[in-house]
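TA notes, week 10

Several of you asked for a full example with nothing omitted. So below is the full record: structure tokens for the whole chain, then the designed sequence directly under it. When grading your own attempts, check the secondary structure regions first.
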């Protein structure tokens, strides 16, 4: 059984090590992130199971996949939610299993992926919903 003095000594010696080990967060080269979510629709209908990619002017992109109601939330890496602060090119694509077959045509028009014209600005903290209303024509 620990005596009170021995317990205090144990805590005094181990607490700093525990605090250093618990200093989570992203890596030191991770940029400041803003939380991003929104909705994707095409011709007024929710667009499910598409990948939304935010590509900053420099650094790593962020990704999200829409659910059945067209809602997405971006992930920067691992469990880090959000996207780098600043301007982004945005692409929306239909994921495929493996490389696409020759002649494959994404149901999402190329103006939203290969030749995207979509952009978005991410600010620090929680961003207002960033929605995309796509047109299939």
């Amino acid at each position: 059984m620990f005596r009170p003095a021995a317990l205090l000594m144990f805590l005094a010696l181990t607490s700093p090590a525990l605090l250093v080990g618990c200093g989570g967060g992203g890596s030191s080269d991770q940029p400041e992130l803003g939380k991003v979510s929104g909705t994707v629709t095409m011709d007024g209908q929710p667009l499910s199971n598409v990948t939304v990619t935010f590509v900053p002017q420099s650094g790593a992109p962020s990704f999200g996949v829409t659910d059945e109601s067209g809602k997405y939330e971006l992930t920067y890496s691992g469990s880090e939610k959000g996207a780098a602060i600043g301007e982004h090119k945005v692409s929306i694509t239909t994921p495929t299993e493996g490389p696409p077959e020759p002649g494959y045509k994404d149901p999402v028009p190329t103006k939203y992926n290969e030749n995207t014209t979509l952009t978005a600005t991410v600010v620090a903290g929680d961003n207002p919903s960033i929605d995309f209303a796509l047109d299939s024509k």
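Helices lie at 4-21. Use that as a sanity check on your answer.
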